[in-house]
Amino acid sequence: MAKKKTAKKPARRKAPARKSASRGGGGRRAASRSTRSAPRAGAPGAPTGMHTVTAQLTFREAAKAIDFYKQAFGAQELMRMPSPDGKSIWHAELRIGDSVIFLADESPQGATSAPSPMHRATSVTQLYVDDCDAVFQAAVQGGARVTMPLADMFWGDRYGVVTDPFGQVWGIATHVKDLTPEEMQRAGQEFAKNMPQQTQAS
């Protein structure tokens, strides 16, 4: 009895790699490898690459802010959704390192307002990088204002704070050493004792 011939299945073609939505050049080298990590699997209930908690920042000039973050922090633009009139951004997403942040221009219908001279930002976005000195300098050169100079802090980070040209506040850090809770407490007490001297010196 002759064997029944089975038709060969066509070879499956690999899907082409998706290109980044960003055409802005990927940011300065100062942002280091830590700001260019590949996306991880998403948190439960979240899309691929997203964590459980995601910050959303509100602006008056979100498009300019995106350009700043590309240059200062090596941010990768994932997407942007302009308003129907093209004058503002309803929603945008940036990846910095292994994390994604949302951005939007303020609107009368929105729940939040952009920082302004009369309304300071109410939060700090913390950024860990390989070389905080280089990233800090890139942010300042791009127009950010030094809010707290870089220093080796008692909790084991080298850390400083800048306020960017759009009023958003960023803590920029590189972890230097691990401390036990006891070591951190002693170092914190020493830091607190020196605070009046530091205030008078400044």
What is the element layout, followed by pairings?
Layout: E1 56-59, H1 62-73, E2 76-82, E3 89-96, E4 99-105, E5 124-128, H2 132-141, E6 145-152, E7 157-163, E8 169-175, H3 181-201
Parallel strand pairs: 1-4, 5-8
Antiparallel strand pairs: 2-3, 3-4, 6-7, 7-8
Helix pairs in contact: 1-2
For the structure shown, list the relevant keywords.
single chain; 202 residues; alpha/beta; 4-stranded mixed beta sheet; 3 helices; 8 strands; globular
> Could you tell me the strand content as a percent range?
25-35%
Biggest sheet character:
4 strands, mixed
Secondary structure: helix percent: 10-25%
- The gyration radius over C-alpha positions equals 23 Å
The count of strands amounts to: 8
Form type? globular
Tell me the distance between the termini.
Answer: 97 Å
Please give the count of helices.
Answer: 3
Which sequence of strands runs across the widest sheet?
1-4-3-2
Mean pLDDT, all residues = 83
Structure report:
It is built from three helices and eight strands; from the N terminus they run E-H-E-E-E-E-H-E-E-E-H. The chain has 202 residues and is α/β, with parallel strands linked by helices. A four-stranded mixed beta sheet has the order 1-4-3-2, with helices on one face. A four-stranded mixed beta sheet has the order 5-8-7-6, covered by helices on one side. A hairpin with a 4-residue loop joins strand 6 and strand 7 (157-163). Helix 1 (62-73) runs antiparallel to helix 2 (132-141). It is globular, with a radius of gyration of 23 Å. The relative contact order is 0.14.
